[in-house]
Amino acid sequence: EYGIVRPKGYTVSFHAAPEMEKHHFGQTHPMKPWRLTLTKSLVTSYGMPFAMDNYLSRAATYEELNAFHSNEYLDYLATAEPEDQPRDIDNPDKEVKFNLGGSDCPLFYGLYNYCSMSAGCSLDAARKICNNQADIAVAWGGGLHHAKKSEASGFCYINDIVLAILQLLRIYPRVLYIDIDVHHGDGVEEAFFSTDRVMTVSFHKYQPEVFFPGTGSLDDNGPKSEHNPGAHHAINVPLNDGITDEQYEALFKNIIGAINERYRPSAIALQCGADSLAGDRLGRFNLRVQGHGACVKYCKSLGLPMILFGGGGYTPRNVARAWAYETSIAIGADTRIPETIPEHAPWREHFIHDTLFPTLEQSMNEPRHNRNSDKRLREIVAHVHEQLRFVEH
Ligand code: VJV
Ligand code: CA
Ligand code: ZN
User: Fold this and answer.
1) Residue 354's domain spans which residues?
2) Can you tell me which atom of ligand 1 is nearest the CA of 145?
């Protein structure tokens, strides 16, 4: 209907976990799992499922989660009840265990089910890539990059990305992890800190003490010890408020292009956190849907097997726009889908403006001041190129 056809000799698999969507972090918590419902409905209104293999994900098993997470943590995650919420008025002495039960990572009904569905989605995607049954696998329910081995952090309980990359490493010698969420991908960086088989690259707002999680400075490049294979295999791109599409796209292509030439990855894991878009409730950047999508398009052009993960994104209408547009890029239909959101799309009024590509003015009352000078961005590029000279090829 929109010229959506299955690309010849090219397979995209789409992994959904509708069970995730009905969970609630709490009334005014910024993380809204129903943004996945909105995304899926936009993807469907454009007719994209005809061009993909569509899968309903299963829940990941305890053993699968245990490939990264500790037993003590998983056992508590599986059994903790919302009533165990620490530090509430009725339980003033209750301690916070594993960072579970605070305001960022609340305990809610069905939490373990929510987490294992998200991980199942990303693991299914990784398996499709390992078996050569997909060229690009899409897992919008994943991308929860802050979770640690024995700790929840920043709305993330299970690190589905680490689990998926561990799968990829069974087949692929080198995996490039790229993270365009507005927050630093600290959990993934830390998990692969000591190996040269994964290079992690995060673009994020960096302002320690003010902006979460406060890590990811330019000179955070992996262990400083010469004898650690992970040295120089963490790349961080710290940015300030208000970065534009033009600056971000140029920076992204330069850095990822140089990494691709030097590191020669065999597969890509791309976290597409949509909180880097203009008008995000928690974000600080001025990216439009096209600029965010240009990163996905550039990665696709490298011709490597790739997983697309979700991640942050706190203005659901824009999350749905970005991830629907990026699904169209995966199937190669981005130049053919109409810019106007289909008449029959459910929740169409919810998008406020009927375009897939709102302007900055449509995204927020007043565009943020851009605090990224071209001079500073050139310094960042120079530092990254210097780091890459230490990477064996
Ligand atoms: O900045 C923080 C930590 C605090 C302590 C907890 N308070 C609520 C906020 C300050 C130091 N946490 C960040 C976490 C961001 C996680 C981003 C996750 C991702 O996008 O990278 C990947 C999925 C933070 N920023 C904003 C909030 N927390 C926030 C949490 C709330 C809230 C409003 C803002 C929790 C509950 C409610 N409102 C009701
Ligand atoms: Ca990031
Ligand atoms: Zn984020």
Assistant:
1) 12-388
2) 22
